[in-house]
Predict the structure.
Amino acid sequence: MAHGVTRRDCLKLLATGAFGGIPQLTRAQADAGTVTVASLGGSWEAMERKAVFDPFEKATGVRVKVVAYTSPSQIVAQEKTGNIEWDCIQMSRGAMLPLAAQGYLAKIDYDRIAKEDIAGIKATSPKALHPNGILNILFTRGIAYNTKLIATGGRPHSWADFWDEKKFPGPRSLAAFSGSLSPDLEFALLADGVAKDKIYPIDVDRAFKSLDRIRSHVAKFWTTGAMSPQMLSDGQVSIASAYLNRIGDLTESGAPVAGEYNEGELQSDNLCILKNAKNYDNAMKLIAFASRPEVQAAASMVSHVGPANTNAFKYLSADRSRELPTYPENLSKQFFYDDEWWAANFAKVQERWTQWSMNA
């Protein structure tokens, strides 16, 4: 694909099947049933609709019904009552693991996914293929800053820079412990000199001691993914931890913000199917479709999320590729969030965070 491809071109080609290999709808497929997908809504759902759901409907005739998803407890409730309303869901690995362990998710039939797509996804992460969920997209929590408040002569490139209030003065923001959101303990360790490959298991005491050093410069701890980008864009803080896909999208809209992939924390979303889903076959069709490189490339044109399938970069311009977290050069600068460690230590760290927060 030509490097000059635009977002509109990308979506148009996907919709028409010109990306190669996407079959177009025939009369016999005019009504191939439905699949109900749980989504987080908002801009995320809009991205899924443009890049995945609409092209999937045109290619297969399967109608995609989207419903709101707010908590894993909704899946538990459906399974316990036997009233399974959803088929497919995209969720974080952290949310997937306990549901899979408790038997609430169906097995993924990897024989229905193209071998080259499985290979492309496995190349991104050793944990890409779980029995109950397949890696779909990745996103980074990392350093972000206001380009007007941080001097052009020097930008923060590490968490040690973030912690250096003399070199980079101004109010800061870090993640709080809120719901399923974990605080930035990993970044606190990196700021204290811990190497990326030595972060886990987290030395909780050391992390909180590092947080003590920066605490007086934190104007606000953010509790939702939208908060820190908004504070940066408004100039309420000069530097913050943030989800860099949101920062990239804001940059495109002209906001004075930028991000840094070095020492970024890669988090992942997986596509899963509920156990006893009414439309398992159509859910698997959707998962196989969403695993294709051209489909993941389209999603990465709508938002700055990283494709899991490394073959997606064949369908993206060089400039767009360099903006994404799973572009090889960016991938090598980051570390993978350890969902298993957090699942085992979540309650303990939450209690410690509550005590630390009260002792301001």
User: Anything to note?
Assistant: The domain at 7-138+268-335 is CATH 3.40.190.10 (D-Maltodextrin-Binding Protein; domain 2). DSSP finds 15 helices and eleven strands in the chain. The CA atoms of residues 146 and 235 lie 7 Å apart.
